[in-house]
Amino acid sequence: MMQDIFGQDTSLTDAAALRDWNAVQMGVLAHAATTPVHLGALLSAAPEFALGQACKGMFYLLVGRSEMIPTAREALAAAKVGYQAALPRERLFIDALEIWMGGRPSGAIAKMEQVLSAHPQDSLAMKLSHSIRFILGDGAGMRRSIERVMPAYDTSHSGQGYLLGCHAFALEETGAYEKAGIAGRQALWTAPDDAWGLHAVAHVHDMTGNAQAGLKWLEGREAAWAHCNNFRYHVWWHKALMHLDLGQTDRVLDLYDREIRKDKTDDYRDISNATSLLMRLQLEGINVGNRWEELSEFSANRTEDGCLIFADLHYLLALAGHDRQAATTRLVQRIHADAQNRPDEMGQRMATPGCSMASGLEAFGDGDYAGAFAHLAQARGSMQLAGGSHAQRDVFERITIDAGLRAGHLDAVESILDARRSKRGGAEDNYAMARRDLIAAGRGNPTAQSVPAE
Questions:
Q1: DSSP state of 351
Q2: Coil, strand, or helix at residue 426?
Q3: What is the DSSP string of 21-54?
Q4: Which of 180, 310, 323, 324 is 20 to 30 A from residue 74's alpha carbon, by CA?
Q5: Above 90 in pLDDT, residue 136?
């Protein structure tokens, strides 16, 4: 029986197909742009390889786009044709895809954990569990999953560096910033193309308010993310956030044009990078020119998508940012309808935190800051369920804070800033310090508008 690069038995019988399968798995770990090429070659040579078909389906679901669901369904059908010939470990991946297709990504995670219980060195199952947990906002689960399998890895394992990178990110998302920085550096020493581990260290610098050190970390390490798929835009986004914190808005806009929106894709992750960055700039009073236009056009076409509340909320940023009222209303109404009518796990997230956050963003775009703050503050406690990272969700925290300031709710905003500082290990960035200055100024002159409304 042939074994893959992680020492797992596989039902493949052709050496060339196995090479492609190994390249697929390593590509997934490294977020490599070449991964789909190897997957296509693998399934062309071995269409009966059920594990490959199942993973194809899960990769398409991770893309978070409704038009990809039929392709994922076709992959599931192809995987089920080969179910009996698949090994028991491989069948669990097929089961995971089927459960996820039924609207329960948490059930898919459970299947990946079942794989890892028997095969802790299966780095693909480790990464898939990590990735699905990421879209569900389950940082604590990420950390538990990684730490359960870590004892099974040593320096001879091809996935060890990427495991460390996932551990670094999970540590950061659970507030263990010092440990996360160490693990992320170890990850990159072990696997120089581990963009995920590199970016975990960038997250640490973001959360601890140390933009200067963050820039120093990223500069000169571009080779660690140059090979990536669209994840490379996200690493550039992190660099732009650091320049923004330092007030270097010209650098931010240059990175936006030259790297972050270099390719005008409508992938929700790319739209998320762009919309959240422009909104941060706008909150600082920076004129972003006509950059909202292409984002709002893409977002207006995604109002009926409904795959991920995280994506929907970023589409809303673009629509509200460019004053696309009809499309904004359509998207907010669809989120509320999904909350009522969808029994699946994403429908639950449309309800909480989706409805309150969506209504808040709509009100903010309309200039109704008191109404916006009421809705946004209500969503705050459950925003983790929207998925993504602390750094990504922080744009919604900033909008909440600025809505509260504009509505004159100084005490409530101060409490939010205190909670934000506590979550960041007692550190504050320049954004927060500037808002504390505005609170102090507002208290000195109770009749003054705390933040100029646009």
A1: I
A2: coil
A3: HHHHHHHHHHTBTTHHHHHHHHHHH-TT-HHHHH
A4: 310
A5: yes
Cα 186 from chain centroid (whole Å): 22
Residues 453, 189: Cα–Cα separation, whole Å: 47
What count of residues does the chain have? Answer: 454
Query: How far is residue 64 from each of residues 192, 265, 282, measured CA to CA in Å?
Result: 28, 14, 27
Task: Confirm if 227 and 193 have CB atoms less than 8 A apart.
Answer: yes
Average pLDDT, the chain: 96
Question: What's the Cα-to-Cα distance from 381 to each of 106, 197, 301, 358, 386, rounded to whole Å?
Answer: 21, 28, 30, 15, 11
The answer to whether the beta carbons of residues 92 and 129 sit under 8 Å apart is: no
3-state secondary structure of 228: strand
Q: Which residue has the tokens 């219980």?
A: 117
Q: Which one, of 394, 390, 403, 391, lies nearest residue 359 by Cα?
A: 403
Tokens coding 341:
């009518």
Give me the pLDDT at residue 448, please.
Answer: 47
Given a cut of 50, is residue 450 above it in pLDDT? no
Q: Where are the alpha helices (DSSP H) in 222-352?
A: 223-226, 231-245, 249-255, 268-283, 292-300, 309-321, 325-341, 345-349
**Which of the four pLDDT bands, split at 50, 70 and 90, describes residue 57?**
very high
How far is it, in rounded angstroms, from Cα 124 to Cα 116? 10
Q: Where are the alpha helices (DSSP H) in 301-453?
A: 309-321, 325-341, 345-349, 355-365, 369-380, 390-406, 410-423, 430-444
* Cβ atoms of residues 30 and 37 within 8 Å: no
Instruction: Kindly report whether the peptide bond that precedes residue 353 is cis, defined as omega within 30 degrees of 0.
Output: yes
Rounded-to-integer distance, Cα 334 and Cα 318, Å: 16
Radius of gyration of the chain (CA): 22
Q: Count other C-beta atoms under 10 Å from residue 264's C-beta.
A: 11
CB-based contact 126:153 (threshold 8 Å): no
- Cα first-last separation, the chain: 66
Q: Does residue 197 sit in helix, strand or coil?
A: helix
User: Crossing angle, helix 410-423 and helix 369-380, to 10 degrees?
Assistant: 30
Instruction: Quote the CA–CA distance of 204 and 221 in Å, as a whole number.
Output: 16
Rounded CA-CA distance 370/374 in Å is: 6
Q: Would you give the distance in Å from CA 389 to the centre of its chain?
A: 6
8 Å CB contact between 287 and 311: no
User: Do residues 423 and 175 lie in contact, with contact meaning Cβ atoms separated by under 8 Å?
Assistant: yes
pTM: 0.96
Residue listed under structure tokens 């906002």: 137
408, pLDDT greater than 80: yes
The whole-angstrom separation of Cα 434 and Cα 405 is 12
